[in-house]
Amino acid sequence: MIDGKTMDVNEVDSAQGFTCPLPINNHERILLAHGGGGKLTQDLIQKIFLLQLKNEFLLQLHDGAVFSINGSRLAFTTDSFVVDPIFFPGRDIGMLAVNGTVNDLAMCGARPLYLSIAFILEEGCPMHDVRRVVSSVQEAAKKAEVIIVTGDTKVVERGKCDKMFINTSGIGVIEPGVDINSRRARQGDKVILSGRIANHGIAVMSTREGLEFETELRSDCAPLHGLVEAMFHVTKDIHVLRDPTRGGVASALNEIAASARVGIHLHETTIPIAEEVEGACEILGFDPLYVANEGILLALVAPKEADLVLAAMRKHHHGLHARIIGEVVRQHTGVVTMKTKIGGTRVVDMLSGEQLPRIC
Amino acid sequence: MIDGKTMDVNEVDSAQGFTCPLPINNHERILLAHGGGGKLTQDLIQKIFLLQLKNEFLLQLHDGAVFSINGSRLAFTTDSFVVDPIFFPGRDIGMLAVNGTVNDLAMCGARPLYLSIAFILEEGCPMHDVRRVVSSVQEAAKKAEVIIVTGDTKVVERGKCDKMFINTSGIGVIEPGVDINSRRARQGDKVILSGRIANHGIAVMSTREGLEFETELRSDCAPLHGLVEAMFHVTKDIHVLRDPTRGGVASALNEIAASARVGIHLHETTIPIAEEVEGACEILGFDPLYVANEGILLALVAPKEADLVLAAMRKHHHGLHARIIGEVVRQHTGVVTMKTKIGGTRVVDMLSGEQLPRIC
Q1: pTM above 0.90?
Q2: In this complex, is the C-beta atom of B85 within 8 Å of any C-beta atom belonging to chain A?
């Protein structure tokens, strides 16, 4: 990220394609930053996974895959959760695992139906922790109206994993007329953000670092399929949906800009953030645009429908703080810029290193 | 397991419901044996997972879940792989992960279609190991005729995982007329085993322990959907399919016997095993019936069709050594017995502890 550097929107045009000065391309070993959701994650995906596994589905680089079986359009997604600590304000790894996969399906425009869950447990992990997490899994599944239909459990020796890791995969069904795809971002589209940013990352980090604030900072972890359904009631023609988890709002928008070959311009003053979270970010030295979220989404919608979609979102309990935070622009293809509070314009680059390891 | 103890088939009837004398029910912490695929795994699943997540799908305790979406019957399955070491004779964790999930789908009677893959990588893991494993994943997917459509990558700090763990989940489609279910085991059904036992477990263990044999013992890791397809060509009315992975042939048959409330009786002399594997089991002190397999399956078929199914299996390259190894009997509900080589009859109980940790 480039902090404090300001430039004119038009000047930025020539900046496209610039990269971080760090040599990120030829690591001989896996770094923590390869899991950070930023440039190194992209690099690993592009240079190792896509190079070998290349196919039309993976190349979409979406939160899930969409395909048809006997005429039904289905979404399929997977996520492993390694959050540390496993319990944090706003709940735990179990709730995160269910909602994470529910949201990935919702971001494909699908109604989540069935989830799998696979545990990797560390020898010596307290049984009551397992019980507590499984109880959260059940509660989250019930709330999200999905069924955990299949599972797996592995145990590894003490010191070979960290208490527990969880994988959830999920299947959902996509209604006819719905076509969510990063590549559908169009010039003029409004960028809507459904709620306040950085809550999840800061809640986990403050627990991990033993920080205390006047009010407890809680993860925003929540299922978003209901909010998406409310948006579809207004129009099925939503172009892009994305939940800005690892790497935050900045990384998600950079991915969309790169994928659709468009520019995106944000207005910092419109980005909703809780005062205490903003304060915590300042103390911890984090740019909130790069901090992970687990209960908000970004939607790109044609301008003529944006206000109606926004109104519908605000009526939903997971969209009370929804705002239009920017728009898709003709200039600076692949680059995200932001008009800052003090009136300048800066580039909002993709996260280049590791900001918050094991945040989800 | 109860080794060497012999009794008459009819005597065994009264032994049903007996349990291992170890107090396995009230562990306060996770033990390695909770991941062994035996009694403690069952205990964990029953007392923690099923207690909370109870639903018609999970209660089937199958390798995967079967459900309908818009009239199509689909199978959905998940598996995490934590095998140690990640490279072993016969390939590596990547091939295992693809074939494991392909086989779980095939054991539901489904044609495998789409897989997800999620990596948890340890900081410091050599990039060429990642590259090598991903290359295996692609090769295995191609051979198994499935597409890896979606994925995820997480990285944890050095010492918080062991090089890499992989989760694969998968979706397959089930043809009309196919109804594979452990509960369908019927008195008289023949138990067919598709090939030689214990190859995978012994190959991994000998690598781990640095043992050398005259001929290299290789894992039998292979996709079995083609073999299942060949069997369906003879009859769609196969009652049960199961790949005896963790816990081996003994545990798989015990699960079937318990689930269908039938007895199963085996003939030791008919169970195919390679001479060098039998020798290795003796040296290492393993009962091959409990050793993990990754490329064989058990099928329960009505007696009138068993010979035809067997003949079809033997024509397939993954079924060359197929044999009828036993049958479903009226006596000793829930118990598996075996006529031993020396002519006695012994109970083949479920694995009660941990024999081979991290075998898959």
Answers
A1: yes
A2: no
| Tens-place pLDDT, residues A80-113 | 999 999 999 989 999 999 999 999 999 999 999 9
Integer Cα distance of A156 and A279 in angstroms? 40
pLDDT digits (tens, 9 = 90+) for A249-298: 999 999 999 999 999 999 999 999 999 999 999 988 999 999 999 999 99
The residue that leads in pLDDT, A34 or B211, is A34
Q: Cβ of B45 under 8 Å from any chain A Cβ?
A: yes
- Listed in sequence order, the DSSP H helices in B6-126 are 9-12, 39-44, 51-53, 93-107
How many whole angstroms separate alpha carbon A64 and alpha carbon A105?
7
**pLDDT 10s digits, A323-336:** 999 999 999 999 99
Q: List the domains of chain A with CATH numbers.
A: 1-20+179-360 (3.90.650.10), 62-177 (3.30.1330.10)
Name the β-bridge partners of A267.
A339
A302 touches chain B (CB under 8 A): no
Q: How far is CA A84 from CA A92, A207, A280, B330, in A?
A: 10, 9, 19, 52
Interface test with B, best of A73, A130, A142, A169 (most B CBs within 10 A): A169
User: What's the pLDDT at A25?
Assistant: 57
d(CA B65, CA A121) in angstroms, rounded, equals 22
- A128: closest CA of chain B, how far (Å): 7
Specify the DSSP element, H or E, that contains A7. none
Angle at Cα B233 formed by Cα B231 and Cα B237, nearest 5°?
70
In this structure, how many other beta carbons lie within 10 angstroms of the beta carbon of residue A212? 9
Token duo for residue A211: 């920080």
**Chain B interface includes A154 (CB < 8 A):** yes
**C-alpha A355: how far from its chain's center?**
15
Q: What's residue B226's pLDDT?
A: 98
What is chain A's length?
360
Residue B354 vs residues B25, B31, B63, B222, B248: alpha-carbon distances, Å: 15, 9, 20, 24, 12
Q: Inter-chain contact B160–A162, Cβ cutoff 8 Å?
A: yes
